[in-house]
Amino acid sequence: MPEDLAKKLNNCTTKGYVIAPAGYGKTHLIALSVLVSSRRQLILTHTFAGVSSIKSKMTTLGISTEKYHVDTIASWSLRLCLSYPKTSGWVTENPTNKQWNMLYECCSKLLSKEFVRHIVTATYAGVYVDEYQDCSNSQHSLVCALSEFLPTRILGDPMQAIFDFDDGKPVNWDASVYPNFSCLGQLETPWRWEKAGEPDLGAWLKEARNKIEQGQKVDLHGERPRSVVYVYTGSEYLAAKQYSSLCELLDHNESVIALHGGDPLSKSKSHLLARTMAGRFSSIEEVEGKDLHIFINKLEAAKSVQAGFLLALEFAKKCFTGVGKALTAGTKRGEVAKKTKGTKYPLLLQAANSYLNQPTSRNLKAFFLELRDNPETSAYRRDLLYRFLNVLRMHVEYEGMTLSETANLYQREMRHAGRPISHRKLIGTTLLVKGLEYDHAVILDADVLDAKHLYVAMTRGSKSLTIISTGRFLPGK
């Protein structure tokens, strides 16, 4: 029973782990454990979306905020090091990607200081670390430093360890976790599918997980529940099958995630398919928003208004289909064009001319809003589009900041608030949606996924799973 395991976690006085497969109620278990605790607990995870999810579960169960503090490992470590800069040797308030491992090393050393340990133990009675499979080796060392003086319980699923880090692969459970942490238990019930009214799907996924974990193959010709759809295709027809399978899922209001793998080409394949679908499915951006920041840096460096506008048009084509059809020939050349009897969209022409005459963020935002509302165009990278619109909005509101400074500020705020997109039909990669839940999942190229990426993809949909494959056995690799 979850309640019994929650008590076991709470009573742990050393360090231990729980294996928590996808959709088995890990967040609920953490909340139940905090509920039965007598003193404040520190709960660490990796993303602000994870922080929000845990806080939401605590609120649902009516747990007082006095009993816990939830934070990302990154934010908690940074705040602690900045509180004692002389001792920690850390003064950088906004670390870059390559600096985070150095921060974790500084924090681990800081936690060896007796006065710091006294402060931490006076504040918290124990530690929970969520999604432990996503820890880097440097984060693992930090957790080990905490475990030397606080009860530490880690929860995760080695089958979902799909991230790579600057210092190598994710923490190796066989080498670093199992020998040093005690097993406190394993979650056994696939609650995600039970609650969705699809217990047969949950049972099938549980059996598939056991096979994949043991290095065996899942036979797609074998017995499957009705909620598991197997679409067999030859490689030459793969794109057509992907398109038709997604079209079949357009006629309802439930959420759908279509998934490519986590290889470097998958992001571009996701954008291309979303474009092919004419925006009926929208592709997801990575959290860092590299394409947005690259464009903004180029826009600020443009030598002329015309050059900047032409850059904006190229960026618009990354967000919309049909941009060329909606614009006049002069606008496409970056010129202030005259309205004629043949001008099809005068409001769009006016918005373009306004920016060319006065290149402000307000006018650029108005131009992109006209593109969004134009009948010739369809947004297929809504995530990218709405991030850009939010940056422009903030730049109008916050005087004295450059556009790139505003983009960096927005990036920091978005990490807390989450993605600005609420579209129900999405295309993404396993790396971008791990930990998230949708009604229906479609694996677009199941053959190319390795065991862990396959398992992550298979467990995203609570009501159905569609597998498009050129072979009958998975994983194909």
From TrEMBL:
Pfam families: UvrD-helicase. Keywords: ATP-binding, Helicase, Hydrolase, Nucleotide-binding. GO terms for molecular function: 3'-5' DNA helicase activity; ATP binding; DNA binding; hydrolase activity. Gene3D superfamilies: P-loop containing nucleotide triphosphate hydrolases. It comes from the Bacteria. Residues 102-172 form the UvrD-like helicase ATP-binding domain. The keyword ATP-binding applies. GO terms for biological process: recombinational repair. InterPro entries: DNA_helicase_UvrD/REP, P-loop_NTPase, UvrD-like_ATP-bd. PANTHER family: ATP-DEPENDENT DNA HELICASE SRS2, UVRD / RECB / PCRA DNA HELICASE FAMILY MEMBER. This is DNA 3'-5' helicase II. It comes from Halomonas sp. RT37.
